[in-house]
Amino acid sequence: QLQASGGGLVQAGGSLRLSCAASRRLFSSHAVAWFRQPPGQEREFVSSLSWGDSRIYYAESVKGRFAISRDRVQNSVDLQMNSLRPEDTAVYFCAARTGSPYVSHWKDYNSWGQGTHVTVSS
Questions:
Q1: 40 closest CA partner among 87, 104, 110, 5
Q2: Whole-number pLDDT of residue 7
């Protein structure tokens, strides 16, 4: 139901844009989030958005560098990642849940897309 795309290899300081596509029906009733899982570490919250009213939530580690947005034409939730750092290297996942977007634990999301790899070289 969710399809993530846009990962790749980039140098530190560069940018990437991830996209999470799904049906508008799913997005309209859900909050959509991006998580990431660095190598050998647990999955961690990055950002979330409420499709209906655009409430947005960021992890402290990405505030000011990443921006989440919705694309009503493409039916996607995108994550613009700027000023990338080597520590941003991870597999990035999009996920959805009903209710509030102000939820950061991965266990509270019940729909998941496949991951997309982001590698930031120093």
A1: 87
A2: 95
* φ, ψ at 25 (rounded to 5°): -60, -40
Residue 49's pLDDT is 94
Identify the CA nearest to 7 among candidates 98, 83, 69, 89. 89
Tokens of 45: 């919250």
**What confidence tens digit (pLDDT) does each residue in 15-38 have?**
999 999 988 788 888 899 999 999
Burial class (CB in 10 A: 0-12, 13-18, 19+), 53: exposed
Integer Cα distance of 46 and 66 in angstroms: 9
Cα Rg of the chain, angstroms? 13
